[in-house]
């Protein structure tokens, strides 16, 4: 196996991948016509970057290399506009959340990539349940020696990123009691879940060599950690967040992610030690974020101090606001407080279901929210 050469990024660039899905407006169930829609959009507008995904019902909107959150969001706005227009012509709606509240995973066909088929072949029932959608944020890093210290620091803020994005409370027609059921389902894959807290790039390369020798990478294509290096692009890829329906919330999530990565990068540059937590605290925080969302009590120090995630988020916004102004995303970062004050997507979904008793109404609400 060749070394995992990291394509260093000269500046803290930004890239966003946002997964949306196609819905039948009558049944409100998922429709496996993503590849067809992508072909139709690309025939009309070839420069719109859309990707096929694990499931045929899904379309992934992908930005180019951006410098600011507003630039990335404008690319997503244009892409979504074309996707929604084509979906309407096909008699479909566009929907986005971390998980569909009632669709049967057994009726949703896979995409045509061989790696997807191999994942199912290896993981069987557990892999077949991956009826899940997420948000992936890439931030450019100048040197591979920074990558793992930054990832380990970001893991201390995993429940924060999870709470504000949590949008998958229901599964197979029932409320799971979790804010992000997606998080619990996705970590079932043997290559997914929390990254190991590697101390340096050499340990990461040694790990990849072991995974290659044992056949894991050959069968799955890559490791699907919550946060991972994306060496081809010279980025850290943050994959913690559920997909969300409101663009303003997506912008806030992307802004917080961008600011956190750059903040930790700057701390390294100034010789400061980055925060870390014991693996068992990181695991507990992840579970609390998935279970309780915005009401999570999170562990904030190696001494096991605890604070409410809403209070932590408010302090993070204050701390990062000057940096956000420098990065051109001050307004978007303030959107975190809108989520804190008004509630996250999973809370709106639960409120709608409590009001009407229908998960179909929840799907309608979610479709209606996808407007810039």
TrEMBL record:
The keyword Nucleus does not apply. It catalyses: L-cysteine + L-glutamate + ATP = gamma-L-glutamyl-L-cysteine + ADP + phosphate + H(+). One of its GO terms (biological process) is modified amino acid biosynthetic process. NCBIfam families: gshA_cyan_rel, PRK13517.1-2, PRK13517.1-4. This is Putative glutamate--cysteine ligase 2. It holds the Pfam family GCS2. Its EC number is 6.3.2.2.
């Amino acid at each position: 196996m060749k070394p995992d050469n990291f394509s260093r990024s000269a500046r803290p660039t930004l890239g966003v991948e946002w997964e949306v899905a196609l819905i039948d407006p009558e049944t409100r169930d998922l429709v496996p016509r993503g590849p067809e829609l992508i072909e139709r959009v690309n025939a009309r507008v070839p420069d719109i970057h859309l990707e096929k995904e694990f499931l045929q019902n899904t379309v992934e909107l992908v930005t180019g290399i951006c410098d600011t959150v507003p630039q990335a969001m404008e690319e997503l706005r244009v892409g979504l506009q074309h996707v929604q227009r084509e979906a309407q012509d096909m008699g479909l709606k566009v929907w986005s959340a971390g998980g569909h509240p009632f669709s049967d995973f057994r009726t949703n066909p896979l995409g045509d990539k061989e790696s997807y088929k191999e994942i199912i072949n290896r993981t069987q029932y557990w892999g077949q349940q991956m009826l899940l959608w997420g948000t992936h944020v890439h931030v450019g890093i100048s040197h591979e020696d920074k990558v793992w210290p930054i990832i380990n620091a970001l893991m201390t803020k995993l429940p924060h990123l999870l709470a504000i994005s949590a949008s998958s409370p229901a599964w197979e027609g029932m409320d799971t009691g979790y804010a992000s059921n997606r998080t619990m389902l996705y970590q079932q894959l043997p290559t997914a879940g929390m990254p190991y807290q590697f101390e340096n790039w050499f340990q990461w390369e040694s790990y990849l060599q072991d995974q290659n020798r044992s056949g894991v990478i050959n069968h799955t294509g890559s490791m699907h950690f919550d946060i991972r290096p994306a060496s081809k692009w010279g980025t850290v890829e943050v994959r913690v967040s559920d997909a969300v329906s409101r663009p303003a919330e997506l912008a806030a999530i992307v802004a917080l992610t961008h600011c956190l990565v750059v903040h930790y990068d700057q701390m390294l540059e100034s010789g400061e030690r980055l925060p870390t937590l014991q693996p068992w605290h990181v695991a507990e925080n992840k579970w609390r974020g998935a279970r309780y969302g915005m009401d999570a009590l999170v562990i904030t120090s190696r001494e096991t101090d605890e604070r409410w995630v809403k209070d932590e988020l408010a302090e993070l916004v204050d701390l990062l606001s000057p940096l956000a102004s420098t990065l051109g995303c001050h307004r978007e970062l303030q959107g975190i407080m809108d989520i804190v004050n008004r509630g996250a997507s999973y809370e709106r979904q639960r409120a709608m279901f409590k009001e009407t008793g229908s998960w179909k109404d929840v799907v309608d609400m979610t479709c209606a929210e996808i407007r810039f």
